[in-house]
Specification:
Chain A has one domain: 3-Layer(aba) Sandwich (Rossmann fold), CATH 3.40.50.970. By secondary structure, chain A is an alpha/beta fold. A 5-stranded parallel sheet of chain A has the order 1-2-3-5-4, with helices on both faces. Chain A has 10 helices and 5 strands; from the N terminus they run H-H-H-E-H-H-E-H-E-H-H-E-H-E-H. Chain A is globular. In chain A, helix 1 packs antiparallel against helix 10 and helix 3 crosses helix 9. By secondary structure, chain B is α/β, with parallel strands linked by helices. Chain B has 2 domains: 155 residues, Thiamin diphosphate (ThDP)-binding fold, Pyr/PP domains (Rossmann fold); 137 residues, Rossmann fold. Chain B has 11 helices and 12 strands. In chain B, helix 4 links the parallel strand 3 and strand 4. Classes of the chains: A alpha/beta, B alpha/beta. At the A-B interface, helix 5 and helix 6 of A face helix 3 and helix 4 of B.
């Protein structure tokens, strides 16, 4: 199973790298960090997630292009759309929104998708609602308003995944404005919090299938720019997309 | 005189007893009519705490799931969640109703934090939103049916108290522009005072005080966005002088909306906008005292109107 997932993730990362570098827009590093999380969600048969029924809300919507190759692979739209990412006539946008088959809500404003997801989870208890939050998104106060709400209403059909790639635009969160201990914060808000390696499919499976009476927060420790050596853990690459022929070639080689 | 919030919440409660999709969220605002929701409709009542941003976001998710959601807060805190209204509701087309209680100086003497004198400007800059400023019991009651029957993102500006002159006025459903007063003289110049909500009381007093000086009418514009184009064009076309009166600062407010309408529709009339001065009002005093002290006493409005015509 893990080999299958690794292959899917590899293919996804490569596709994301290709359409991001050919368009030159978006947040490539932030998408690469959460590819394994979404791969596990969509492809691991042990994980209870039906993309036709359940919800994945990208609260950190700048990372949402990570899911586009997967949705194309699952026939939500034509594979040819990937080449048209962010181009006139293409349906795939920098931030996913409900106009894209398989996607929900609007994208682009941090700290809000989680509250929308809480409303969905409260009204549709028969559905599972997965939310991907950025770690730097946790600076938004509205996130914590919603955590109180989710815990009080015991919304255990919602699963929060924090893409803990450690960086915001200006640098490392722990140097800019300390976020740790994220785990303790979630626990103190009434969650079961699991800290995992966000690139390990055993860890992902265990956490994404974890059940509890309490709502669950998974802190997925990830690498920003995962898979491209010169991008990994370099905060400068938050908004920069490789442009030179050499960089692009090297990136593709490493992701093959 | 029953407060507008209780008129709305009571009527909505009656409807909610028969429709489990009606959900009421309070951002820690109370009302005498709200207690029964907690007791009799606990599954349709959500206490969101003092968290307007989360309340709006959760409401958007509930609306996306087919619920008819009403979020109740102090009108001042509409400013607190503008991004959530814009992003999660207006942009995502999630239709909810926001009940903002205590508009303008309604909470005097609580100080400027509690007295939004720019919420019309803030709300009308958003897309896909309707803004209502009901003036009495009848116009408030009509809004319950409107919200339930025609889903739309709405901001309803509830008055804590309303003008006694309007107590017995009846509004028809969808009557968003209503002539409340007209004197019986004929003059070349025709003055129309446009206002909404609490300020209509003063507008009516000014209309009476003008007596036979000039042909005058007082018109309530209760739906501020979108303006009822057909009726407003008629009203404006029959006037030479338009006086807009609002308990808001002028930039982007009620008078601005009227000026934009005149401009966009190539109408020709003289306009005088009267509103609150551009400052936050920290002084003590009742609502009427503060309105008077800030240039909008009946005598001041009358004098301005006379000079204007």
């Amino acid at each position: 199973m893990n080999h299958f997932l690794e292959e899917k993730a590899k293919k996804t990362r490569l596709e994301v790298f290709k359409f991001k570098t050919s368009s030159g827009v978006g947040h490539l590093a932030s998408s690469l960090s959460c590819v394994d999380v979404v791969t596990s969600l969509y492809y691991d048969e042990n994980v209870n997630f039906d993309p036709h029924k359940d919800y994945l809300i990208f609260s950190k919507a700048h990372g949402s292009p990570a899911v586009y190759p997967i949705l194309a692979d699952l026939d939500f739209f034509e594979v040819s759309e990937l080449e048209k990412y962010c181009k006139p006539g293409g349906i795939l946008k920098l931030h996913s929104d409900a106009s894209i088959p398989g996607c929900h809500f609007v994208g682009g404003s941090l700290g809000n998708g989680i509250g929308y997801a809480a409303g969905i989870a409260l009204a549709q208890k028969d559905k599972k609602v997965f939310v991907i939050l950025g770690d730097a998104e946790l600076y938004e106060g509205s996130v914590w308003e919603t955590l109180i709400f989710i815990a009080h209403h015991k919304l255990n059909n919602i699963v929060l995944v924090v893409d803990r790639n450690k960086y915001g635009i200006l640098g490392a969160t722990e140097e800019m404005l300390k976020l740790e201990s994220i785990k303790d914060k979630f626990i103190s808000f009434g969650f079961d919090a699991l800290e995992i390696d966000g690139h390990n499919f055993d860890d992902l499976r265990k956490s994404l299938t974890y059940t509890s009476e309490k709502p669950v927060a998974i802190i997925a420790k990830t690498i920003k720019g995962k898979g491209v050596s010169y991008m990994e853990d370099k905060y400068e690459y938050h908004t920069i997309i490789p442009k030179s022929e050499n960089d692009i070639k090297k990136g593709i080689q490493e992701l093959l | 005189m029953t407060a507008q919030r209780d008129i709305f919440i009571q009527e909505l409660f009656e409807k909610a007893l028969l429709d489990k999709n009606i959900i009421f969220i309070s951002a820690d605002m109370g009302a005498p009519t709200l207690d029964q929701w907690k007791e009799k409709l606990p599954n349709q009542f959500i206490a969101a705490g003092i968290s307007e941003q989360n309340a709006i976001n959760v409401a958007s998710g509930l609306a996306a799931s087919g619920k008819k959601v009403f979020v109740y807060m102090m009108a001042s805190w509409f400013a607190r969640c503008i991004e959530q209204v814009r992003y999660s509701c207006a942009m995502a087309n999630n239709t909810i109703t926001i009940l903002g209680n205590g508009v303008a100086l309604g909470y005097a003497p609580s100080g400027p934090a509690h007295e939004p004198n720019e919420d019309i400007a803030l709300s009308r800059s958003l897309l896909n939103i309707e803004i209502h400023s009901p003036s009495n019991e009848s116009s408030t009651l009509n809004l319950v049916d409107l919200c339930l029957n025609i889903p739309k993102l709405r901001y309803i500006r509830l008055e804590r108290n309303y003008p006694k002159q309007l107590e017995n006025v009846t509004y028809q459903q969808n009557e968003f522009i209503k002539t409340l007063f007209e004197n019986d003289v004929e003059t070349d110049k025709k003055l129309t005072i446009l206002s909404s909500g609490y300020m209509l009381g003063r507008a009516l007093e000014v209309g009476i005080k003008i007596d036979k000086l000039v042909k005058t009418s007082v018109v309530d514009i209760s739906r501020i966005k979108p303006l009822d184009s057909k009726v407003l064009t008629e009203v404006l076309s029959n006037s030479t002088h338009i006086l807009t009166l609002e308990e808001q600062t002028l930039d982007g407010g009620f008078g601005s909306a009227i000026c934009e309408f005149i401009c966009d529709n190539n109408l020709s009339c003289n306009v005088l906008r009267l509103g609150l001065p551009e400052r936050y009002i920290f002084e003590n005093g009742s609502r009427d005292y503060l309105i008077d002290a800030n240039g909008l006493s009946v005598a001041n409005i009358f004098d301005s109107a006379v000079k204007f015509i």
